[in-house]
Amino acid sequence: MAKLLLCLEGVVLREFPLDRESLTIGRKAQSDIQIDDITISSKHAVIKVEKNAYMDNIKDVYVEDLGSTNGTLVNGQRIKTHMLRHGDVILLGRHEFKFLDEDAPDFDKTMVVNVDSEKVKTRTLLPAAVKVLTGPKAGHTLDIVKSYTTMGNGGSTVIISKRANGYFIAHVRPKGATIVDQVPMLNDRPMSGQTSPLNDHDVIEIAGLKLEFFLKA
């Protein structure tokens, strides 16, 4: 199970298991996690836990800033919405939250897949990349080597996640974004807020820029 460790000046104050759909963080008593600190806004941020649409045992965890005065930082970068990965550090005012995911996959591990009802075999997750299909950088490729790779900007931001069971993509919609043409496309279909698996030669479109996801043999 994933959890947050609340820390101040290197000292762990409390532990919060992420066993519910959302946790609000703020200075007011109505918050699920109340922090009595003047550097924290009344309604500062929210943690969202979403069930993966394709894998019952996978949870996608996001942190979203709620228009706070001092902002929400993840690993030193100010964010609006961010998909969390094991080891991320969220900074709110003077307090830190360390995100720990006990179910985080070991991406170097060999995984077991079913061949049929009686046989199984092992294989290593193939490396993957995206190729730029349009624009001045057409033909350029980017290897997907990190656990999470963010592409785009503003309303057209997607995250490609690398897991033991494959590659997945999610559209991170910033707060208040409603413009239809900002929504990224996957194989000519608008992406929803759910995480989708990526298959060899899928085409991603971000703000008019087309990319091809492919596996490297």
Written description of the protein model:
This protein has no helices and 23 strands. It is 0% helix and 51% strand. The chain has a six-stranded antiparallel sheet, with no helix packed on it. Residues 105-123 have low confidence and may be disordered. The radius of gyration is 19 Å and the shape is elongated. With 217 residues, it is mostly beta strands. A hairpin with a 2-residue loop joins strand 22 (203-206) and strand 23. The chain has strands at residues 2-8, 11-17, 22-26, 33-34, 45-51, 59-65, 72-74, 77-79, 81-83, 89-92, 95-101, 111-114, 120-123, 128-132, 141-144, 148-153, 156-163, 166-172, 185-186, 189-190, 196-197, 203-206, 209-215. The two termini are 33 Å apart.
Q: Rg, please? A: 19 Å
Major beta-sheet overview: 6 strands, antiparallel
Total helices: the number is 0
Write down how many β-strands occur, each being a DSSP E stretch of 2 or more residues: 23
Question: What portion of residues belong to β-strands?
Answer: over 45%
Structural class estimated from helices and strands: mainly beta
The secondary-structure element order is: EEEEEEEEEEEEEEEEEEEEEEE
Global shape: elongated
Mean pLDDT metric: 80
